[in-house]
Amino acid sequence: MRILHSNDFFLSDLHAFCLFMLNNQQVEEVHGHEFDELVIVVAGSGFHIINDCVQFIYQGDFFYVTFNDTHSYLSTNKLSVINLLIRRERNFHYLVNIDKLLGYLKAGSDCSSMTFHCLTSEEIARIVALTLAINARNDDGYDDLYFSATENAVLTIIDLLCQSTLRKTSRNQYEHSGRKYLIHALRHHYLQPINWNEICEESGMTRRTMFRFIKEVTGYTPVKFQQIFRLLKAQELLRTTDKTIGEVAIGCGFANAARLAESYKRQFFYPPSQERHIQR
Length: 280
Hints:
Elements: E1 2-4, E2 17-22, E3 28-33, E4 36-50, E5 53-58, E6 62-65, E7 71-86, H1 98-108, H2 121-136, H3 144-166, H4 178-188, H5 196-203, H6 207-218, H7 222-240, H8 245-251, H9 257-268, H10 275-279
Parallel strand pairs: 1-3
Antiparallel strand pairs: 2-7, 3-7, 4-5, 4-6, 4-7
Helix pairs in contact: 1-3, 2-3, 8-9
């Protein structure tokens, strides 16, 4: 497994943080790193797998990855992210209690909770502007004024994320209309047969508009997206539980173990019976 090293990212030994934007995050194999990482989804979508737990991520999502975690990206579709890297062994120059806020964000990023806090378009735009402002500074000396300005911007970004976790209007509580509701439905109902007519009625979209939106967001047709999500969830369960292949198949929406095995081998190029052996 590849490990990302601090010296390849941080500008100097004086920096406790590094901030940059990737406008087209490609598929990334499983990796770890020597630092903590805050990831903010600016645009697009994809699957993020952290410690074998799969999540569908979308514009406005954010999550925290520690140096103890492993993660990867799959099936990305025009995914743009901002990465805020933090070296916990180094102190900020002016931010004293930053660990409390980072711990708050880490607790809110628990994969098992399936709670998605959503940044507004205005908040995303502000975070992008702050990121560009930090990276536009060319103070090679990295003096006190440099760190007072850049750390203030970093604190503002972290504060925006913390305030978002406090809002009661998370993605699990969207109104039953529009595209936000549709994204919510895709996240939470992929394991069951989806009544597309009912989803159309609830979201206020025509079937054609809804299918076009799903293809635009995910890069897949609704049926293909649901199948990939089910297979990734099956892979997660095979890696993290002792459930039989039959139990995993039924729990992930497949008729039986044979149907799962057929689709699994087509997607991953090996049968589910080998998953635990490969993982070990």
